[in-house]
UniProtKB/TrEMBL annotation:
Keywords: Repeat
Repeat recorded as keyword: yes
Spans of repeat PPR: 13-47, 48-82
Alphabetical list of InterPro entries matching this protein: PPR_rpt, TPR-like_helical_dom_sf
NCBIfam families: PPR
Organism: Vigna mungo
Gene3D superfamilies: Tetratricopeptide repeat domain
Name of the protein described by the UniProt record: Pentatricopeptide repeat-containing protein
Amino acid sequence: MWKDMLEKGVIPNSFTYTVSISSLVKEGLYEDAFKTFDEMRSNGVVPEEVTYNLLINLSAKSGNRDEVQRLYEDMIFRGIIPKFMENLAYMRMLTKHLKRQISVVNSPVRKHIWQWLKSILLQEM
């Protein structure tokens, strides 16, 4: 349908791109969803808040912290003030990352590494 639309000279707008991205996400075609998003921006079509929301949530669910950060910052750069849902996905992602970092710091492996480093430092004195 998308190709037919383009062949007939219909120029996609923000709404049609967002509907296409939403359909791709629902079908599990995540890479295609991001390609469509990139195409949208390269064609000069400004993404809407809904478009960002779809991709931020998708990236957060897949654990792609860097992509969440990039989308969130791009959204703000374009003057779109994140609302509750975008902030929630972003905060969940940061919290998940922080929990992982805390678990590494508190892990028994860390204690062994610290003891090993301490013994090396003491030997050099």
